[in-house]
Amino acid sequence: MTAGTGVLTGWSISHSNADIDTIEVACSRSDAEIIESVLDQSAVTEALCLQTCNRIETYVVTDSPATGRAALETVRPDVPDSAVRELDHEGSLRHLMRVACGLESLVLGEDQILGQLRDAYLTARSMDAVGPVLETGLTKAIHVGERARTETTINEGVVSLGSAAVKLADRETELATATAMVVGAGEMGTIAASALAPDVDRLIVANRTTEHAEHVVDALDGACAVGLDSLSGTIADCDIVVSATGSDHSIIDRSTVNASDGPTLLVDIAQPRDIDPAVGSLSDVELYDLDALESITAETTATRRVAAQQVEEIIDEAIDRLLTQYKRKQADEVIAAMYEGAERIKQQELQTALSRLDAKDELTAEQRETVESLADALVGQLLAVPTKSLRDAAERDDWSTINTALQLFDPDFEDQPTLSDQSPQYPSPNTKSTAENTEITGSDTADDD
């Protein structure tokens, strides 16, 4: 595999196809440990691992999809097959863009994931695990994620009960000085905790299984985890409680909340209820339920869905250009070899011609420069059309044309493996390249998405 080539292969385990228990099992190793493990395999040239409280994803760059899948199998967690989404080259690139844009998040369009993807990228780079393929793909994904948030309304408003609960709390309480507790480490609890963490003074996540709560707080600065067995003692120190467990009965009642020391604001987003309605009758306690929250979410849900369609269009355009860019890089390596072969022939013939001319009458420096410029111009003009044809052939995955061209310009190429054996076959993009530049230098410059 030559520099700059390779195919991306990945797998993803996330909230969309796995429950929290499965994700917890999958996230038993650090990003660095997983990257180090796959890089130990000689077939892997680049690697990335992305972990959040709701996902773990691993990607490798190898010479073929089959090699990539085999490498990833060595770090695949012991979870059901149904929980693992396998991604090919184009699928990996598209998925990374969707993740960066927040289209794969629990809360459509949320912002936190973009920073988490940047952190994963920097971790991989610090381990020398990012090469030409991932560098191009990740920087493009991050750029598209930024475009999604500046060019659409994908991250505006409130679309989940968890974030709606936080918005309601913000109306009723001074968050900056508040101690808040989220009860439950499932989907809604995780959303509420993520939304509260940046704004409150102190955050506690309580859950029946403490390990699940710890999994959530690992991604939040300064938060701590407790079990439900300490709920009564902890709740007395809280100003805000958001409860979102999957319990089939109330877990907070009048005896749990001390009216004199307890929280002033409780928000119940569980179904069935987590908080006994009688708690609302306590003095200095305000209790809100689902009915109070639904009006907050309804207004922006439709807006974000429209924005999501706009984001999908941005991603489609970016994917087409990115795949073309990868293929142009491969073609340029072939074209460089073609130019090198032509340059060798040119130098041989040029020296022969100059020697003959010098034998008759010594050439001046200006005359020698004229002859050399003529030779350069002839090579450039003769190879201009083949250069464009080879780039177009690469975009069509027409490696037989490229192999033929190499045989014409490099007599030794017949003894080498064909390019189709060495180069990965990328899916053809939906758009055609409009590049007309026939120079080698700068031909693979990234587009301005």
Automatic annotation (TrEMBL):
List residue numbers at the site (Important for activity): 95
> Alphabetically, which GO biological process terms does the record hold?
protoporphyrinogen IX biosynthetic process from glutamate
**Family annotation (InterPro entries):** 4pyrrol_synth_GluRdtase, 4pyrrol_synth_GluRdtase_dimer, 4pyrrol_synth_GluRdtase_N, GluRdtase_CS, GluRdtase_dimer_dom_sf, GluRdtase_N_sf, NAD(P)-bd_dom_sf, Shikm_DH/Glu-tRNA_Rdtase
Q: Which reaction is recorded as catalysed by this protein? A: (S)-4-amino-5-oxopentanoate + tRNA(Glu) + NADP(+) = L-glutamyl-tRNA(Glu) + NADPH + H(+)
Name all Quinate/shikimate 5-dehydrogenase/glutamyl-tRNA reductase domain ranges. 168-296
Q: Which UniProt keywords apply?
A: NADP, Oxidoreductase, Porphyrin biosynthesis
Binding site residues for NADP(+)? 184-189
Which residues hold substrate? 52-55, 105, 110-112, 116
Question: What are the boundaries of the region Disordered?
Answer: 410-449
Polar residues compositional bias: what residue ranges? 417-449
Q: Which HAMAP family match?
A: Glu_tRNA_reductase
Recorded domain comment: Possesses an unusual extended V-shaped dimeric structure with each monomer consisting of three distinct domains arranged along a curved 'spinal' alpha-helix. The N-terminal catalytic domain specifically recognizes the glutamate moiety of the substrate. The second domain is the NADPH-binding domain, and the third C-terminal domain is responsible for dimerization.
Please state what the protein is called: Glutamyl-tRNA reductase
Organism of provenance: Halocatena pleomorpha
